[in-house]
Backbone:
């Protein structure tokens, strides 16, 4: 039996703060990796690269917080249309796929009390 090595093809994901004059907290993770919490000033991005699973099951999700609002979304799922770029605006988060110029609205902010963080 001959085993062929799968070529290492890394994928990358970018989350960019496009809020107006607000610091954004970003915390992304997968089942196996916690990428930690990161504070992004306006215009800054958080990016990570990884080798997708051989089984096509790679999943990353992110939680975002700004002032009294938060939201969570799936940032990468191998079995779905692959989205590489995420832009965080005052009305929510928008995605852009790797090969398309059009963006789409993914998720709105929700208000939370400080106890819910």
Residues:
């Amino acid at each position: 039996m001959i085993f062929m090595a799968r070529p290492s093809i890394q994928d990358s994901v970018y989350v960019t703060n496009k809020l107006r004059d607000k610091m954004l907290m970003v915390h992304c993770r997968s089942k196996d990796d916690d990428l930690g919490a990161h504070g992004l000033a306006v215009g800054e991005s958080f990016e990570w690269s990884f080798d997708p699973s051989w089984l096509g099951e790679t999943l990353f999700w992110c939680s975002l917080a700004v002032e009294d609002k938060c939201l969570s979304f799936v940032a990468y799922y191998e079995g779905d249309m692959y989205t590489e770029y995420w832009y965080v605006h005052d009305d929510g988060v928008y995605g852009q796929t790797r090969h398309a110029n059009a963006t789409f609205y993914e998720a709105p902010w929700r208000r939370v009390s400080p106890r819910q963080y």
